Design the sequence.
């Protein structure tokens, strides 16, 4: 029986992948279904996929305050690594990773324009300017557009999951809280989306909104050594602030082993170094700052040690994260 099921799984996967093209070089533009064997990446562009009613689609939202239309090299980052979950059979249906290629429609400020306007940043006028074009709240409408398109082509809402990294994780969590019936559940990777100023109002705004939802059905991966510059963005602080929200399941990834991160005995080979995670203070007497480097490192020795170590923020794009793929599959299976 198991042999028959295995053969039928291969036939379905080959049937789907046969419609995909190998992605060797160049950018992935627009929406795309992703298939990967860990070395090569194949894509089906657009929102049409064979046998949509029997697909479980996991949409992936990129991070950043502002998302560009291009994804970068197709063989790098998320497509190559997370794309390996595509083809997994869950209760007779095929799981497929999909890149959300329309987030650029939400627009959004990256802080530079407002910084130039005020010849400095991290003060209230800069935040007010930034929030006039803050793109994160607009992403729910973009997500909704993509979800409705997939539903119109035959995939039930219950078989659609939203996932995302960093700001992409935040925007999918808030979407699920705001519109719980739009899709099944969220899978967020290292969600954080603010600046590095201590007590930044951007963090308070986002955390307060998420805490205000009655329930968020989600699986959240987070790291005690996240390493982004976002103030208090590691798993210790995020669980402290969001840990009591009903529906959220947390998975903490490991801390450092020496300079690297080791998952299940495998070194991750993290190239991205820590950009934050140490305590900083606002320089006394300053009204605004012209650079993030102007923040004072409270423990300079710790800062020098930490900035040489690998950051956990982009762990999902490294092969060591494959260890957690079964956790994603188990979560999806529990909700289908």
Sequence:
């Amino acid at each position: 029986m198991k042999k028959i099921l295995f053969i039928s799984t291969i036939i379905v996967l080959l049937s789907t992948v046969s419609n995909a093209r190998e992605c060797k070089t160049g950018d992935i533009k627009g929406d795309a279904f992703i298939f990967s064997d860990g070395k090569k990446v194949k894509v089906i562009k657009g929102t049409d996929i064979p046998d949509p009613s029997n697909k479980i689609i996991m949409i992936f939202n990129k991070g950043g305050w502002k998302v560009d239309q291009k994804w970068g090299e197709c063989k790098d980052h998320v497509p190559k690594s997370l794309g390996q979950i595509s083809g997994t059979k869950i209760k007779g249906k095929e799981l497929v990773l999909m890149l959300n290629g329309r987030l650029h429609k939400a627009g959004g400020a990256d802080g530079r324009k407002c910084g130039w306007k005020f010849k400095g940043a991290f003060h209230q006028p800069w935040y007010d300017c930034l929030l006039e074009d803050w793109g994160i709240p607009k992403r729910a409408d973009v997500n909704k557009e993509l979800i409705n398109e997939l539903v119109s082509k035959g995939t039930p809402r219950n078989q659609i999951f939203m996932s995302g990294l960093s700001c992409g994780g935040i925007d999918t969590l808030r979407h699920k809280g705001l519109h719980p019936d739009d899709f099944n559940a969220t899978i967020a990777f290292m969600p954080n989306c603010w600046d590095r100023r201590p007590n930044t109002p951007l963090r308070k705004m986002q955390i307060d909104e998420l805490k205000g939802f009655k329930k968020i059905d989600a699986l959240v991966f987070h790291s005690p050594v996240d390493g982004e510059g976002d103030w208090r963005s590691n798993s210790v602080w995020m669980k402290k602030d969001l840990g009591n929200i009903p529906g959220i399941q947390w998975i903490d990834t490991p801390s450092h082993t020496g300079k690297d991160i080791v998952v299940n005995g495998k070194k991750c080979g993290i190239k991205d170094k820590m950009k934050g995670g140490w305590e900083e203070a606002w320089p006394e007497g300053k009204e605004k700052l012209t650079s993030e480097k102007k923040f004072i490192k409270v423990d300079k020795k710790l800062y020098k040690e930490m900035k040489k170590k690998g950051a956990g923020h982009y762990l999902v794009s490294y092969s060591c994260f494959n260890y957690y793929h079964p956790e994603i599959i188990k979560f999806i299976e529990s909700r289908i």
Remarks:
- Residues 33 and 191 are 23 Å apart (CA to CA).
- Residues 1-12 have pLDDT under 50 and may be disordered.
- The chain has ten helices and 17 strands.
- The radius of gyration is 20 Å.
